[in-house]
Write a structure and sequence with these properties.
This protein starts with a helix and ends with a strand. It has 8 helices and 9 strands. The protein folds into 2 domains: 3-72, no CATH class; 128-329, Vaccinia Virus protein VP39 (Rossmann fold, 3-Layer(aba) Sandwich). Helix content is 48%, strand content 14%. With 330 residues, the chain is of the alpha/beta class. Helix 3 (115-138) runs parallel beside helix 4 and helix 4 runs parallel beside helix 5 (180-191). It has a 7-stranded mixed β-sheet, with helices on both faces. The protein has helices spanning 3-71, 89-99, 115-138, 155-168, 180-191, 205-217, 275-279, 297-306, and strands at residues 172-176, 197-202, 224-228, 231-232, 243-244, 255-260, 283-292, 314-318, 324-329. The model is unreliable at 76-100 (pLDDT under 50). Bound molecules: S-adenosylmethionine. Residues 151-153, 177-181, 202-204, 207, 261-262, 264 line the site of S-adenosylmethionine.
């Protein structure tokens, strides 16, 4: 409403408020004046309170609009966007540079979904559809598989794994942890005629059975061995988290591809560390080690600790759904 109209409305209301006691007084004398005054007072008080509340609501809405506008600015886009109200890594640096250190960051209400979030979700879904399409183009998956990316490897990791498997045609493949990845490798071996030995170490006998059944359902039971290796102490002096029974490695040699995706993180700190120190002497001259879950700090730390053990390997980080590292010696 314009200021002139507001002033006019206020004038009309004031006149009505003054007129009420006069009119009531004419009708009922002194009592009427008192009733008119009470009525005018009540109306005036209600009007003032309503005005104050509306102003507060208006200010709050303006604040929200400003917050949303700031959150959707393009300088928040590069890098990894954060949760609502929290800029992504690069966005945070960019904002600091622009507004100066210590400047207040807009706080969006919890649970508010911004356009930027919806766009990110849409892009992630599109990427996953493409990963699954790629995977199904590379290996003939003709029976059901468990949902990818929960306890299993994600589709993008499987694509990266099969790519390297087909390219390097390793004599021996070793997996820490069995599951869909074992089936996918077995299917790729059959599809691409790769003469290879795939051995998946598995600490859980029930899970080993379930992976064997999955291999059979996909018609590739003879292409991979699920080897039960209970978790226990290792021969590594400074490592105290149990790992697969080392005797399970005894007959392995010329290992050209390793997938590190077990034991589960919950078994203890640096649960997957022993794979490299214990398998190092059995690796082939040309070798690729694929490590899942490196977006978890513990697994990224494990990869860092391997660097001095693998001086002739190249370390690469893949920005996959759960983070991955690929270590190669060519
Ligand atoms: C991350 S999973 C290995 C996944 C495997 N590379 C794949 O792509 O399916 C590591 C271990 O977790 C255990 N595991 C797998 N699925 C599980 C589930 N749904 N619940 C509990 N443990 C599971 C198995 O012992 C497995 O060896």
């Amino acid at each position: 409403m314009s200021a002139a109209r507001l002033r006019l409305a206020a004038l009309v209301v004031a006149l009505l408020l003054v007129a009420a006691p006069v009119v009531f007084g004419l009708v009922d004398g002194r009592t009427g004046v008192l009733v008119g005054l009470a009525l005018s007072g009540a109306v005036a008080a209600t009007g003032v309170c309503g005005y104050v509340v509306l102003r507060r609501v208006e200010e709050r809405l303006r604040g929200l609009e400003r917050g949303i506008a700031r959150a959707q600015r393009p300088d928040r886009q590069p890098g990894r966007p954060g949760r609502p109200g929290q800029p992504g890594k690069q966005g945070k640096q960019g904002n600091q540079g622009r507004r100066g250190r210590g400047a207040a960051r807009p706080q969006l209400p919890k649970g508010l979904v911004t356009q930027a979030h919806l766009k990110k979700e849409r892009d992630q879904v599109a990427k996953r559809v493409q990963d699954i399409t790629n995977l199904f183009d590379m290996v003939p998956i003709r029976a059901g598989i468990p949902p990818l990316g929960l306890w299993t490897a994600s589709a993008d990791l499987l694509v990266a794994l099969v790519d390297r498997f087909v390219e390097t045609r390793p004599a021996t493949v070793v997996e820490g942890g069995s599951g869909v990845s074992t089936v996918v490798l077995a299917l790729a071996a059959r599809e691409h005629g790769i003469a290879t030995r795939i051995v998946a170490l598995e600490h859980d006998p029930d899970w080993a059975d379930s992976t064997r059944r999955l291999l059979a359902r996909h018609g590739v039971a003879e292409y991979a061995e699920v080897r039960v290796a209970p978790l226990g102490p290792t021969s590594l002096p400074d490592h105290h988290t149990p790992w697969y029974d080392e005797s399970a490695l005894a007959d392995l040699s010329e290992v050209g591809l390793v997938l590190v995706d077990g034991p589960p993180e919950g078994t203890g700190p640096r649960a997957r560390y022993p794979m490299v120190p214990l398998l190092r002497d059995r690796l082939a001259r040309t070798c690729t080690i694929v490590v899942d879950d490196t977006s978890r700090p513990g697994d990224a730390d494990v990869v860092d600790r391997w660097r001095p053990l693998l001086p002739d390997f190249e370390f690469e980080t893949l920005r996959l759904d759960k983070g991955a590292a690929v270590l190669t010696r060519t």
